[in-house]
Amino acid sequence: MIGRLAGRIDMRSTDHVLIDVRGVGYVVFVSERTLAALPGPGEAAALYTELVVREDLLQLFGFPTLVEKEWFRLLTSVQGVGAKGALAILGALGADGLSRAIALGDQASVKSAKGVGPKTAQRIVLELKDKAPTIMAMGGAPASVTPAAAPTDETEVIEPAPAPQPAPPTSGASQAEALSALANLGYGPSEAATAVAQAASEAPDADTAALIRSALKRLAPA
Fold first, then answer.
1. Cβ count near 139 (within 10 Å)
2. What domains can you pick out in the chain, each with its CATH number?
3. Residue 18: how many other CB atoms lie within 10 Å
4. Cβ(20)–Cβ(152) under 8 Å?
């Protein structure tokens, strides 16, 4: 199983990139959102990957974070949602947006993705709502790689994940920390996830403390 690729981008298309990893080119399908965030040809990049196996086809799909990769895996487990459909949803909402939409039961947001009908959106929300707290708690650091770290040895294919580096908390990390704090206070995963998602939807750039305060207001008895 190929879980992560790090190399140089040789070519960009409308729905995939060709990544050169030590002389071997890998075609990796990505969402529109991920494609827009990737650098141009000749520059270094890294993606977490999921290998989709069919009877007559092998395809690699790439994601900037493990959270997005996990959402892709869960989306494709829903009846009627294929790999391209899952990419369309992630491209429209992003991992954080999808987490909030599913935690809030927001079928309209899921349906806004190209090719997703109301019945499919309803099925996604109903089947995955219980999974949202776990995914939100994962946080997620990007699988980026600097040019200096680009591979040169032709004997290996997959780079080990880089050691964690201190970085300012991302929106997803803040939501994960807030979710963990609420769990420590005794709130159930589902109600905590809903409250954090509501707080994050109103203030996407809020830090952990602000999300906790806002979520607690929503969880307080009337």
1. 20
2. 4-64 (2.40.50.140), 66-132 (1.10.150.20), 171-219 (1.10.8)
3. 16
4. no
| The overall pTM is greater than 0.70 | yes
- Per DSSP bridges, beta strands 57-63 and 24-29 are parallel
Alpha carbons within 13 angstroms on the beta-carbon side of residue 143 total: 24
Question: Which tokens hold the place of 173?
Answer: 């990390």
Q: Nearest CA to 98 among 215, 179, 206, 193?
A: 193
pLDDT tens, 69-103? 999 999 999 999 999 999 999 999 999 889 888 98
* pLDDT tens-digit series, residues 3-13: 999 999 999 99
Bridge partners, residue 46, by sequence: 6
CB of 175 within 8 A of CB of 196? Answer: yes
Residue 205, CA atoms < 13 Å, CB-side half-sphere? 0
The whole-number pLDDT of residue 222 equals 58
